[in-house]
Specification:
Order of helices and strands: H
Strand content: under 5%
Number of strands: 0
Number of helices: 1
Structural class: mainly alpha
Number of domains: 1
Oligomer: single chain
Distance between the termini: 38 Å
Shape: rod-shaped
Radius of gyration: 11 Å
Length: about 25
Amino acid sequence: MLSIALKLTDLYQLKWIGAFCAQQTF
């Protein structure tokens, strides 16, 4: 259960980092 939560948070952070990088390119 804990490992799943950690994976979800990692994906969530990656999504925000990707969105931030996308904003920087524009």
